[in-house]
Design brief:
Alpha-Beta Plaits, Calcium-transporting ATPase, cytoplasmic transduction domain A, elongated
C-alpha cells in the first residue's frame, strides 16, 4: 500500500532492542495489522497506541535499521531520529505537541467527533418527533435524506473497511459496513441509521475512556526544578537545568530539591529520600555520599558533583523500566481481540445459515442487522464500567480505565507501601520518659526551646506537642543544628543538648540509666530523642509515624472479602517494618526494599497468586506499581510520578476508600454480566425470530433501541449508588 511522501517515522527511542516509533501510518488499525504480519519474524513483542500514532517494538538480535527498511518497503516514508531527552517517553494524547510528525491529514479531534455525535443525536430526536408525535412517515429509501445522513455518518467506518479490504482482511468493520450498505439499498435506511448511531456512540465512549486512561508518561521524568546553581570559579551561577553537564558542581541548600544525580564533594545535610527509597526519616549525608535527583535537602548545604543528567538520572531509568512494563499487552486485551473475531464468525455463520436454510434474503438481512450491532460487546461493558468510574469519582477515587476497575475485585493479593501510604509521613510523640524528680512539662519546655527554629519534621512535631501542652517556648535561645545528630542550644545560663545517642556520646553524657526502657522502645520501631540540660540527662521522648485512620479496618475488611494475601513492601528497616506489620496483621513483610526489590517482590507474588494490586505513593513505588496488575496511588501528598503511573488514584488517601473501590469493582462486574445477559439474550432471540421471518429489518433495528435502553438503565444504577 502507499502513504503520502510527507509521512515521517520518528524514532523516539531505541534502547536495548526496544524501540518506540511514531508516524501517521500508525494511526490506522489496518496499517498496524500489516506491519505485525510482515515483521513477525523480527519482533518479539509489539504494542500499538493508535491515539498517539505510535508503536513500541521489542525486536530480536537484529538492527533497527533492518526493521525500518522493511517498513519502508511497505510504506513510502522518511526517517527522523529524535534527540530530545523527554521524547523517549510519550503517552496517550492525540494532540501530543512533543511528537515530531508531519502529516497530510490529521485525525478528527475528540471534540469534533463529539459535535458530530451531538448532531446525530439531534437528528434522531427529530426523527422520533416527526414519526411518533406528528405521525408523519419518514422516507427511508436509498435516495432519502436519512440514507444520505447514514452514509455520511458511516464514513469513518467505510474508510477502515476499505483499508482492511485492500490488505485482504475481512474484519468486523467490513461486516458492519456491508450491513449498512445493504440496509440502505433495500430501503431500510432507518435501520442503517440506528446501527451507525449506536456504533458511533460506542466508539466515542471507548475513545473517551482510552484517552483519559493515561496522561503523557513523558511528563513523569520532568522535575519541577527548572534551574540549578552551578559553582563557577567559587561563584554560584544560576543556569537552566538543561545546561547542566556531567562534572559540574551544583549547590543545594535547605529546602531545595536536588535536580541531578551526583556525589557530595563538600558540605553535609539531611536528605529526604523517601521519594526514592521510601525511608520514613531523612538521611544524613556528607562528603562522598551519593544523592539523587528529585530528593529534598531538608537541612544543611551540599556541593554535588554531577554524575548524571536527563535520561541517565536514576529517576529516569526507573521510569524507562516502568514504560517497558506498561508496554506489555495485557491478557484482557488479547482476550478482547479473540472475542471480536468469534463474534464476527458467529454473525457471518448465522446470516449465511439463515440464507441457506430459508432462501429468504430479507430474513438473512434481518439476522445480519441484529448480529452486526456491537451493543452487547460495547455498551454492556462500557456503560457499566463508565458508570462505575463516575461513581468512583464522586467518592474521590479516580479510575483511569475499565480493565483496572474490573481487576480490583478479581485480585488475590494486595500489597502496600508504608511511608506516605499507610502513614501520614508526620512523626508523632508517643512517650515522654523522665529521670526521677523531672517534670514532663519541664523536659518538653527545654526541648521546645532548642527546636524552636528547626524545620526538621521531628522538630515540627515537638513544637506542635508543646502547643498542645500549652507550653510557651522562649525564642531567645541560640541554637546550632548538628546534622545527623540533633541540636545544641544556649538559653541564658543553660546549655541544652537534644538528639540521638551518638550526640550524647560526643558530649560525654551517658544514657545507661535508660538502656532497658530504650531497648523496649527500639523494638517497637520508635525514634528516640534524648534531652540534656547542663550535661544532666532529663529523659527522652519517643516518636513514630502516624498510621492513617482506618488502616487496620481496611486490612480486616479486605481479608473478609476474600483477599488471600496482604503484604507490606517498604524501604524501612527490618525492625520498623516488622513491628508495623505485626500491629496491623499483614501476612508478609518485605523490608529494606529498593525500587527494583519492590518490583521483584511483585513479580514473585504474581507467580503464586491471581492478580496483584500494589498501593503506593512515591517514586520508589512506581516500578512495583507498573509490574502489578492494578496500581493504586494515594494521591494526597503522593508523588506526581506515582499518580500518573497508577491505574487508580485515591485522592483523599483514606484507607477505607480501598475497600470502597473493591466493592465498586465487584458491583460493576455484576452489572456487566447482567448487561451481557440482556444484550446476548435479546440478540439471540431476535436472530431466531428473524431467521423464520417473524422479524422485519425495521423491527430488528427497533430491538436495538429496546435492549440498549435496558442496558443503559441498568448501568445507571451504578452512577447513583454511593453504597456500592
Amino acid at each position: 500500500m502507499s502513504v503520502s511522501n510527507m509521512s515521517i517515522i520518528s524514532i523516539k527511542s531505541d534502547i536495548k532492542n526496544r524501540a518506540r516509533l511514531k508516524s501517521e501510518i500508525f494511526n490506522r488499525s489496518s496499517n498496524i495489522e500489516l506491519i505485525k504480519k510482515e515483521l513477525s519474524s523480527y519482533i518479539v513483542d509489539f504494542r500499538e497506541n493508535i491515539s498517539c500514532s505510535s508503536i513500541i517494538i521489542i525486536y530480536k538480535d537484529t538492527q533497527l535499521s533492518e526493521i525500518i527498511t522493511k517498513i519502508q518497503s511497505l510504506f513510502h516514508t522518511t526517517i527522523k531520529q529524535s534527540t530530545a531527552a523527554a521524547d523517549s517517553i510519550c503517552g496517550v494524547n492525540s494532540n501530543c505537541s512533543n511528537c515530531s510528525i508531519k502529516t497530510d491529514s490529521n485525525p478528527l479531534s475528540f471534540k469534533r467527533k463529539l459535535i458530530e455525535f451531538g448532531l446525530l443525536t439531534g437528528y434522531s430526536v427529530y426523527l422520533f418527533a416527526v414519526k411518533n408525535i406528528l405521525g408523519v412517515t419518514v422516507l427511508a429509501s436509498p435516495l432519502s435524506v436519512m440514507a444520505l445522513v447514514s452514509v455520511v455518518a458511516a464514513i469513518p467506518l467505510f474508510k477502515e473497511s476499505y483499508e482492511d479490504i485492500k490488505n485482504g482482511e475481512f474484519s468486523l468493520q467490513t461486516f458492519m459496513s456491508g450491513t449498512l450498505i445493504l440496509a440502505i439499498l433495500f430501503g431500510e435506511a432507518m435501520a442503517a441509521f440506528e446501527i451507525i448511531y449506536i456504533l458511533r456512540g460506542g466508539m466515542l465512549l471507548e475513545e473517551y475512556v482510552a484517552t483519559k486512561s493515561k496522561n503523557q508518561i513523558k511528563n513523569l521524568i520532568e522535575l519541577d526544578v527548572q534551574n540549578a546553581y552551578v559553582l563557577v570559579d567559587d561563584v554560584e551561577v544560576q543556569v537552566p537545568l538543561e545546561e547542566v553537564s556531567v562534572g559540574d558542581v551544583v549547590v543545594c541548600r535547605s529546602g531545595d530539591k536536588l535536580p541531578v544525580d551526583g556525589l557530595i564533594v563538600d558540605g553535609s545535610g539531611h536528605i529526604d529520600e523517601s521519594l526514592i527509597n521510601g525511608r520514613s526519616e531523612s538521611i544524613y549525608k556528607e562528603k562522598e555520599s551519593d544523592v539523587f535527583a528529585g530528593t529534598l535537602c531538608e537541612s544543611g548545604r551540599v556541593y554535588i558533583k554531577v554524575t548524571a543528567v536527563g535520561e541517565d538520572r536514576y529517576i529516569s531509568k526507573v521510569m524507562q523500566d516502568v514504560e517497558k512494563s506498561l508496554a506489555l499487552k495485557s491478557p484482557s486485551q488479547i482476550e478482547a481481540d479473540l472475542l471480536a473475531k468469534k463474534l464476527l464468525r458467529l454473525g457471518s455463520i448465522l446470516t449465511l445459515g439463515t440464507l441457506a436454510l430459508t432462501g429468504s434474503f430479507i430474513n438473512a438481512f434481518s439476522v445480519m442487522i441484529i448480529m452486526s450491532c456491537p451493543c452487547s460487546t460495547i455498551l454492556a461493558a462500557s456503560t457499566a464500567i463508565s458508570a462505575g468510574i463516575a461513581n468512583g469519582a464522586k467518592l474521590g477515587i479516580l479510575i483511569k480505565g475499565g480493565e483496572s476497575l474490573e481487576k480490583v475485585s478479581q485480585s488475590e493479593v494486595f500489597c502496600f507501601d508504608k511511608t506516605g501510604t499507610l502513614t501520614t509521613g508526620k512523626p508523632i510523640i508517643k512517650d515522654i520518659v523522665t529521670a526521677k524528680g523531672v517534670d514532663k512539662n519541664s523536659l518538653m519546655e527545654y526541648l521546645a526551646i532548642a527546636e524552636y527554629r528547626n524545620t526538621h519534621p521531628i522538630a515540627l512535631s515537638i513544637q506542635e506537642k508543646a502547643k498542645e501542652l500549652k507550653i510557651e517556648a522562649s525564642q531567645t535561645a541560640k541554637t546550632e543544628v548538628i546534622p545527623g545528630y540533633g541540636v545544641k542550644s544556649v538559653y541564658g545560663e543553660h546549655t541544652i543538648v537534644a538528639g540521638n545517642k551518638k550526640l550524647l556520646e560526643k558530649e560525654s553524657i551517658t544514657t545507661e540509666r535508660f538502656e532497658d526502657q530504650v531497648f523496649h522502645h527500639l523494638n517497637e520501631a520508635k525514634t528516640i530523642v534524648y534531652v540534656c540540660v547542663n550535661e544532666k540527662l532529663l529523659g527522652y521522648i519517643t516518636l513514630e509515624h502516624e498510621v492513617r485512620a482506618g488502616t487496620s479496618k481496611m486490612i480486616s475488611d479486605l481479608r473478609k472479602k476474600g483477599v488471600k494475601h496482604i503484604a507490606l513492601i517498604t524501604g524501612d528497616e527490618e525492625k520498623v517494618a516488622q513491628s508495623f506489620a505485626n500491629n496491623l496483621g499483614f501476612d508478609t513483610v518485605y523490608a529494606n526494599q529498593s525500587p527494583h526489590d519492590k518490583a521483584n517482590a511483585i513479580e514473585e507474588l504474581k507467580k503464586q497468586y491471581k492478580n496483584v494490586v500494589m498501593v503506593g505513593d512515591g517514586v520508589n513505588d512506581t516500578l512495583a506499581m507498573s509490574k502489578a496488575d492494578v496500581a493504586i496511588s494515594f494521591a494526597s501528598g503522593g508523588s506526581e510520578m506515582a499518580i500518573e503511573v497508577s491505574d487508580i488514584a485515591v485522592t483523599h488517601s483514606h484507607p477505607e476508600d480501598v475497600v470502597n473501590l473493591y466493592n465498586l469493582s465487584k458491583k460493576s462486574l455484576e452489572v456487566v454480566n447482567q448487561n451481557y445477559w440482556i444484550g446476548t439474550s435479546t440478540n439471540l432471540i431476535g436472530a431466531a425470530f428473524a431467521s423464520i421471518g417473524l422479524l422485519s429489518p425495521a423491527a430488528a433495528g427497533a430491538i436495538h433501541i429496546g435492549h440498549t435502553t435496558s442496558i443503559m438503565a441498568n448501568s445507571s444504577r451504578l452512577a447513583i449508588d454511593n453504597n456500592s
